[in-house]
Amino acid sequence: MGLKSWFPAVLVVAVMTAKAWAASPEAARETRIPDAALANAVQLRERTLQDTTAWRVVESLTTEIGPRLAGSEADARAVRWAEAQYRTLGYDKVWLQPVSFPKWVRRSERADVVGAYAQPLTLTALGGSPGGTVEAEVVRFADLAALEAVPAGSLAGRIAFVDYTMQRARDGNGYGPASRIRSRGPSAAIRAGAIGFVMRSAGTEQHRFPHTGITRFDDGLTPIPSAALALPDAEQLTRLLALGKPLRIRIALDCGWNGIGNSFNVIGEITGSHRRLREEVVVIGGHLDSWDLGTGAIDDGAGVAITMAAGHLIGRLPKAQRPARTLRVIAFANEEQGLYGGKVYAAQFKAEVAKQQLVAESDFGAGRIYGFNTGAAAHAKTAVAQIAEALKPLGIETMSKGGPGPDVGPIAAEGAAWAWLGQDGTDYFDYHHTPDDTLDKIDPAALAQNTAAYAVFAYLAASADGGFGSAPKAPEPTATAKP
Ligand code: ZN
Ligand code: ZN
Questions:
Q1: Buried-exposed string 45-75: b where 16+ CB fall within 10 A, e elsewhere
Q2: Chain centroid to CA 57
Q3: How many CB atoms lie within 10 A of CB 475?
Q4: From the CA of 30, how far away is ligand 1's center (Å)?
Q5: Which residues pair with 252 in a beta bridge?
Q6: Alpha-carbon gap, residue 272 to 30, rounded angstroms
Q7: Among 283, 326, 291, which residue's Cα sits nearest to residue 307?
Q8: What is the full DSSP assignment across 242-284?
């Protein structure tokens, strides 16, 4: 290459580099958080720890609305409540995203041991269960595997009972195997010929509260009445069976699917300060619906309150401290029966997933946050470390675990970078999906710690100089037949 051609060659390289950079601006440099934002976050953190907005919000929701089963009259009131809260809390923009789903209703439920040991049992229908009254002999199984192993037809005309004990854990990892019984047990019972299904509740306390939750029936099966017993009642049933005689119970459930439910994701935004970057959003939220037994305080009034309050406090910062990007706080519709709100959100925004700066949901109660992690790209590791440093004084450590919350799961699956703020769930399953999920189970100091963590995390993510790697997922490779 002669001297004459040197300049144009450099120019071509420079143009190509600029083009590559424009196509993938993030890949070219490391994401960092400006020092001024880090300093603002320290003040925001300390102020939030003293703030009681989250408590007032969750108190209002659980007191004035109470239980809010998806599609119910109370759910509709909760939507109006959330809209009004965002406005009262000074959000710049409030909007609704319609969400539809099959509506399930619970009217009454009762169970009794019949015969020589006649007595009532405390249980609750699983969400999605049909109504009906069945009376039959009970057959006990120690776990799901035992039920799934029985030959087809062997439970003809009987009621299957799975008596598995859920294990307590800070990160709630005992819920996986316990909730699998709820989702897969009824179908396994039907395949074996059973006419009813009961399980020991997926819970960790010994109070006489059954734990509800959604179940599903596999295609082609005729659903049977399916319910969860309070833990002491499951133990009672086990003792009665140990007496060695055939034992009959009667289950009478009045519940079932009833048309289409309509609700909304209720969304509040604090608009970003940067003319271009304000199109990008940091998404935080919780779910607005709850089961009908308690008042939905820890599941998930707390998550709604934590994130609404965090957004409010960021919105109240002096104008010069406003983050560049928009903060989007979402009270998701119908998480409990199948992530309906989260799926609608992902369907609307998957085409612009790169504009979802970072997404996180609070849906594991109101215990103190102890862990932090993200699914961010390598080029954002400095920014992630800066956020972790700002969270440290709250007693939060970086850990290699966690994932996106349930409702942001669908948008994360489309390629949005997620963050995990892991709450201490040691006692979460003492109350989860029971009549005992009420406001008094929330510790105001822990709630404030949660709010401070969300405020700091969301503020810094929205202020970052660069992104966290959100990008459309590469199309799945064409499936090839396995040898
Ligand atoms: Zn929840
Ligand atoms: Zn739940």
A1: beebbebebbbebbbbbbeebbbbbbbbebb
A2: 19
A3: 6
A4: 35
A5: 110, 133
A6: 22
A7: 283
A8: HT-S--EEEEEEEEEEEEEEEEEEEEEEE--SSTTGGGSEEEE
Three-state DSSP class for residue 148:
helix
**Alpha helix (H) residue ranges in 50-174:** 53-60, 73-88, 144-148
C-alpha to C-alpha distances, 20 to 13, 66, 470, nearest whole angstrom: 10, 53, 17
Calculated CA dihedral for residues 420, 425, 430, 433, nearest 10 degrees: -10
Q: Minimal CA–CA distance to 313: which of 55, 54, 87, 62?
A: 54
Angle at 216 between CA 214 and CA 221, to 5 degrees: 155
CA 301 to chain centre: 12
From residue 257, alpha-carbon distances to 127, 244, 292 in Å are 9, 38, 15
Say how many CA atoms lie within 13 Å of 202 toward its Cβ.
Answer: 26
C-alpha 124: how far from chain center: 22
User: Which helix (H) or strand (E) covers residue 388, if one does?
Assistant: helix 381-391
Q: Separation of 291 CA from ligand 2 center, angstroms?
A: 7
Q: Which ligand is the nearest neighbour of the Cα of 407?
A: 1
Ligand showing the shortest atom-to-Cα distance for residue 434:
2
Rounded to whole angstroms, the Cα distance separating 55 from 417 reads 29
Question: What gap in Å lies between CA 415 and CA 424, rounded to an integer?
Answer: 27
Residues constituting the chain: 483
pLDDT in tens, the chain (483 residues): 333 333 333 333 333 333 333 445 545 589 999 999 999 999 999 999 999 999 999 999 999 999 999 999 999 999 999 999 999 999 999 999 999 999 999 999 999 999 999 999 999 999 999 999 999 999 999 999 999 999 999 999 999 999 999 999 999 999 999 999 999 999 999 999 999 999 999 999 999 999 999 999 999 999 999 999 999 999 999 999 999 999 999 999 999 999 999 999 999 999 999 999 999 999 999 999 999 999 999 999 999 999 999 999 999 999 999 999 999 999 999 999 999 999 999 999 999 999 999 999 999 999 999 999 999 999 999 999 999 999 999 999 999 999 999 999 999 999 999 999 999 999 999 999 999 999 999 999 999 999 999 999 999 999 999 999 999 997 666 554 443
Between the alpha carbon of residue 473 and those of residues 343, 379, 422, 436, 446, the distances in Å are 16, 17, 25, 41, 36
Ion ligand 1 residues within 5 Å by Cβ? 299-300, 363
- Tokens linked to 59: 């108190």
| 8 C-alpha to ligand 2 centroid (Å) | 63
**Which tokens sit at 352?**
């612009």
Instruction: Determine the Cα–Cα distance for residues 275 and 181; give it in Å rounded to an integer.
Output: 50
Centroid of ligand 2 to alpha carbon of 293 (angstroms): 11
